[in-house]
Amino acid sequence: MTSTVRRLLLLLPTLFGVSIVVFLLLRLIPGDPAQVIMGLRATPEGLAAITRDLGLDLPLHEQYVRWLGALFSGDFGRDYRSNVPVTQLLATRLPVTLELTLLSLLLALIVAVPLGVRAAVHPNGIADKAASVLGLIGISIPDFWLGILLVLVFSLTLGMFPSSGFVPFSDGIFANLRAFALPALTLATGLSAVLVRVTRSAVTEVLSRDFVRFLKAKGLPPRAIINRHVLRNASVPIITVIGMQFGYLLGGAVIVEQVFDLPGVGSLIVTATMERNYPVVQAGMLVVALLFILVNLGTDLLYAWLNPRLRGGAR
Amino acid sequence: MSLLEVNHLRTEFETGGNWQEAVSDISFDLAGGEALGLVGESGCGKSTVAFSLMRLLPGNARLAGGRIGFDGKDLADIGEDEMRRMRGGRIGMMFQNPMTALDPAFRIGSQIGETLQTHLDVDRKEARRMALELLRSVAIPAAEERLDAYPHELSGGMRQRAALAIAIACRPRLLIADEPTTALDVTIQAQILRLIRTLLIEERGAGVLLITHDLGVVAHTCDRVAIMYAGEIVETGTVASVFANPLHPYTQALLEAAPNARTPRGSLATIPGRVPALGMRPSGCRFRGRCAFERPDCADPSGPPRVRLDKHREVACVLHAA
Lengths: 315, 322
Ligand SMILES: Nc1ncnc2c1ncn2[C@@H]1O[C@H](COP(=O)(O)OP(=O)(O)O)[C@@H](O)[C@H]1O
Ligand SMILES: [Mg+2]
Description:
heterodimer; A: mainly alpha; MetI-like fold; 2 domains; 0% strand; B: alpha/beta; Rossmann fold; four-stranded antiparallel β-sheet; globular; binds magnesium ion
């Protein structure tokens, strides 16, 4: 528990660090927001005026402090182009990314964990071979390529799923899920590959422990031994890896949102970066970082719950 | 009638592509209310016997022959489901290392309770009540609190008591204890052995197969003893007769090497050489090469003669041939 409290306390300084890095990185890439906003109509006077309006003529540290100050009062700034408040943008985009990543995580878990368990229980069996193939495919095929391939097969050839685009939840859960099927499958493949390997090796390790033999000697049915005891003990490394992989999932979401034209935070950040739309990129990155940190925090809590030795207060 | 009757048991391991006998033609029996010690140095095949009886051999092992009579059935022959009901039900088992025998992620009470619920028709609440009683019967102090403790919160001795509670939870007719006290210090060892004797033999008339490399353990706990060497039983008899008059040179060597006040516990270093690995055993008598009384006829490929001296006493050595 103490480690969780420590992590919570570290949350603010971490976000602070992220804010500095994002802020500086953005300004390191060449390109002038004012130029992008004015485009071909740009005149020196107009540019100067816009630069002043946006506060981009101020020294960097002053710009940063202003931004941060506004953040603390809940003001994430406005989109340079549309002048829409960034919070409003995030409110529509974040649910899409969340649904994409959670569906992918769910899909990966449903496929990889049972497969990894079977592979460990029957080494060299069919499940084990399937697990190796999945591991190989998932690790060697890039997300964008897999996405295109899936579109080619399941959308253009078989016509089972839409090739791109987003259907909001309000249009019915089925249509919504159908739109997410291929993107989630794309994103889930890489994670499944890692997860199936970790599950297999974690379960193999637990199966070799003494207590499993004692459980058999107690007369427990194999199913109970695997589902209750072995999985519970193997879940610690599995969940640790999920926490670590969540960062890759968010990174992958950026690419998958591009490939499938999903209006999520990832595609928002990509477009905004190209337009040097500073407030949008900065806020988007902060939200993604916060998400990552929160997931890891959740992982920590789960981890402590699953591993009694980490729980405070010996009896 | 015997409770357990093992006849010509053979168990093999596959190593390097061929099958090697770890247990060769072993026979013994055990009556209810009796404790039999199975004794030999490390590597003699004692654990392999135990796991053969439980049919819990590792993947590279197989029962190659023999009969395991128990409860009117042949354990070597019954189906896996029936065997599973035996494990933890009619037959309890304890292992050497109490630190690793329990699942670290589950509370003691739930680990006892799940055994009860597997074999008996009891609900959670009833299982918990019985678990508490079991913890009390194995003399765990503050049993109520221990019920909700995790294994890491208990000492080695307490964990082994908990493991004993699990092993006896369903009132088994037979307890197989594989070096149950080897990892514990002497005082706790004596307490656990005392408990096994009281709870199983005296109170319930159950049988106990106690596996150990320590003859001292046998002296205090068992009624009869079988001395095992390199996959074979070389001598059997009542504890009193074997200790008073050991016949096989290996038994004699074990007794001389037995730990006493002056030597550290568990050291059997005084027998020169070591138990031959599988596939490295000499033909004829397997104790050849380490035996102080070796003669040319010990190499006779038919092996040493089995000499029966009385109802319980048997020895396999040319020195005692008629
Ligand atoms: N899983 C295994 N694979 C191959 N050989 C084994 C295995 N387990 C035990 N053995 C061998 O079988 C013999 C008997 O081992 P074991 O029954 O553990 O002896 P003990 O319990 O008397 O110390 C030893 O030679 C050991 O090396
Ligand atoms: Mg052993």
